[in-house]
Amino acid sequence: MEAVDLARLQFGVTTIYHFLFVPLSIGLAYLIAFMQTMYVIRDDEKYKQMAKFWGKIFLLNFAVGVVTGIMQEFQFGMNWADYSRFVGAVFGGPLAVEALVSFFLESTFLGIWIFGWDRLSKKVHLACIWLVAIAATLSALWILSANAFMQEPVGFEIVNGRAEMTDFFALLGNKQLWVEFPHVIFGALATGAFFMTGISAYKIVRKQQLNIFRPSFNIAIAVALVSSLLTAFAGHDQAQHLMTSQPMKMAASEGLWHTSGESAPWTVIASIDPEKQENSFQLEVPYLLSVLSYNKLTGSVPGMLELQDQYVQQYGEGNYIPPVRTTFWSFRIMVGAGMLMILLGILGVYKAIRGRVEGSTRYLRWMLPAIALPFIANTSGWIMTEVGRQPWIVFGLQHTEEGVSPLVSSGMVATTLIGFTVVYGLVAAAFIYLVVRTVREGADVDAKHHVGGKAANNAPPAALL
Amino acid sequence: MLETVWFILITVLFIGFFFLEGFDFGVGMLTPILGKSDTERRVLINTIGPFWDGNEVWLITAGGAMFAAFPNWYATLFSGFYMALFLMLLALIGRGVAFEFRSKLENPKWRSMWDWIISIGSFLPALLWGVALANLMRGVPIDENMNYVGSFWDLLSPYSVVGGASMVMLFLLHGALFLSLKTEGDLRLKARGVAQKIGAWTSAVLLLFVVLSYFETDMFASRGISPGMVPILAGMALLSVHFFIKANRDGWAFIMTGATIVLSTITVFSLMFPNVMISTLNPDWSLTIYNAASNTYTLKVMTIVAVSTIPLVLAYQIWTYWVFRKRVSASDHLDY
């Protein structure tokens, strides 16, 4: 493999891995902040125990998110030096602001939150977790504004062969950002909520600590449903925006080779042949793609081959069609997972309202593996977005292969790729082991146990169940 | 003008990183060595528990600021010092999760494994940053397209290794003194003992580095702006540490290692100015704050953001140290 392929693989592996932890952190931060708010308002120990239990998992997760985020900050310079030189004057801005405004806030106040339970007044301590949640959200905003620039460059001009920022507020007002950001944030909330629902369901089935996990389930299932629905709506907005900003990605995600007729059908599944540039088989729902794209029954959707001709005229010779199969299927996996989430959310909320959660053993058992759904949706969504932008690293401005570090050899990239993959794998193994253990142990219901470190170590929480 | 402002701001960010993470690297390195029992180790880790993550953000911010203000510096440095950076990242990854993971299981082997990861994960970045700074001072092979044309091994020379050792020693001393302020009883005595033992060695290694710098770099001759009295003050601060420890003034001793770090960083950066990466192949191929910088508009926006947020960051980070100002003792609630 060439250095550029390895560098892409490395970016894919490390970024997908990083983004398994980030949405869970954001989602759990808000849920924990809510629980701790209830504790402060109602002065009910139960909520404190809830916040502390979920806090343990949150912290394990946050730690992995932070350390893999450091890697993200440096990898542009390491593997993508020419990209960094080309866009640094625009793209570097949001990254620096993210560190200055959000990451400092988040890391500092998380430290205070972890160690501050006995040191601060309840309200100040509560403010810390809210600051963490808000800072993490702002973090996402800055990072996504950088990503939105790659999808839809705005607020810049090309001077001496590089992009220079001309309007900071154009970057922040990028239409792409404001369809992308809500989609990601609601997706993050859904991730935290499904995680919490699944773990709570597991504990409820085992009839363990129902006073903790019953309310956890109820809070989380409501958030799960609402945020899954909002993610879908925001996703719909994003798809409509794609029609104008990156029609090629849209066409690829639909496996649409030729511009459709006046009313475009939606392809449910297809057998795509990228060599012959046709689908040997496809299952269609009439009108649906027009409805999805324009909110009406008619409206033609441009196909890849026509767009290819248009791009050749606009950008010169080259292949502007992204890997179609990957784009097509990652989109369907994301939508499928999202639909399942909404369905499970509706079912769960219905059961919770009717007070039938505990009796629904089969449903509860399904909710544990359902934790995987938001992670699958997040991952495939990003694969669709990033693979669907190819061959561009910055849409319309720079090709991906032009962005790599010119003198970093494929051997070096391969070495670091293997190194990061092995270390990330080991970290994941330890992480999963610790989360499973934390869940088995359950919440510390004996609030008095933490007088002195020794006592804390010796208290066997499992025996209290 | 704005290029100079950003050169200063990045210097400030590195000072923040070296000063703050310096002591938590020091504590990290010392943890498995000083802490004989599990409780002792837990106490040592808890002295930096609430702070280390916030401290590390100074490095992340320095990286982000280089990307935004000097994209060519960012690109050349990180693609050039590729393997060194890779090792540093692995170290920081291991160390970061270790703080969170180590106490989750009772198993002594599990804990000892993570404690050593903390120690090595603190040692390696300190060493590598020292090596990197020495290379920045001496210059590295950079071609006319701003690309580093050497290998990882070219970064290692007796001179740069002494640079790495200086950083390690300085951070160890800084960390030991931090512990003398944050622990009590036996641990405190042990930390002071370490500080006393390595104080003279640290001065010796740093002196060696300064002498070698005279022969290995041409900083003293031609480049940069004269740092004036700053390096001399740095040396005096370091020498005074020993006397402050003897006089039972641990607080002052810690301030003096801090001052050494701050003043040495200022010295190095002002001697480099206006270069950010010196080419040993051809002086015309060096990266300077001018040919590495972003456009004026970007620098302006970033200046506004940085100047308005850095004081705020300092304020709430200082508040953190105030909240956790008490010494950590074995009778505290240690497990969070």
TrEMBL record, chain A:
Membrane topology label: Multi-pass membrane protein
Q: Which Pfam families match?
A: Cyt_bd_oxida_I
Q: List keywords of the entry alphabetically.
A: Cell membrane, Electron transport, Heme, Iron, Membrane, Metal-binding, Transmembrane, Transmembrane helix, Transport
Q: Which GO terms describe its cellular component?
A: cytochrome complex; plasma membrane
Task: Cite a single GO MF annotation.
Answer: metal ion binding
Protein family (similarity comment): Belongs to the cytochrome ubiquinol oxidase subunit 1 family.
Q: Which residues cross the membrane?
A: 16-41, 53-71, 91-117, 124-144, 184-205, 217-235, 329-351, 363-384, 412-436
One of this protein's GO BP terms? aerobic electron transport chain
Q: Would you tell me the protein name for this molecule?
A: Cytochrome D ubiquinol oxidase subunit I
Compartments reported by the entry: Cell membrane
Which InterPro entries does the record associate with it?
A: Cyt-d_ubiquinol_oxidase_su_1
Automatic annotation (TrEMBL), chain B:
Q: Which UniProt keywords apply?
A: Cell membrane, Electron transport, Heme, Iron, Membrane, Metal-binding, Transmembrane, Transmembrane helix, Transport
Where is it located? Cell membrane
Gene Ontology CC, one term:
cytochrome complex
Membrane-spanning parts: 6-35, 81-101, 113-136, 156-177, 198-215, 227-245, 252-277, 297-319
Q: Which GO terms describe its molecular function?
A: electron transfer activity; metal ion binding; oxidoreductase activity, acting on diphenols and related substances as donors, oxygen as acceptor
Judging by the UniProt lineage, the source's domain of life is: Bacteria
InterPro entries given for it?
Cyt-d_oxidase_su2
Pfam annotation, one family: Cyt_bd_oxida_II
From which residue to which does any coiled coil extend? none
In terms of one coarse class, where is the protein primarily found?
Answer: membrane
Regarding the membrane, this protein is recorded as: Multi-pass membrane protein
- List GO BP terms, alphabetically: aerobic electron transport chain
NCBIfam families linked: cydB
What the record says about family reads: Belongs to the cytochrome ubiquinol oxidase subunit 2 family.
**Full protein name:** Cytochrome d ubiquinol oxidase subunit II
Q: Which organism does this record belong to?
A: Paenibacillus oryzae
What is this organism's lineage?
Answer: Bacteria, Bacillati, Bacillota, Bacilli, Bacillales
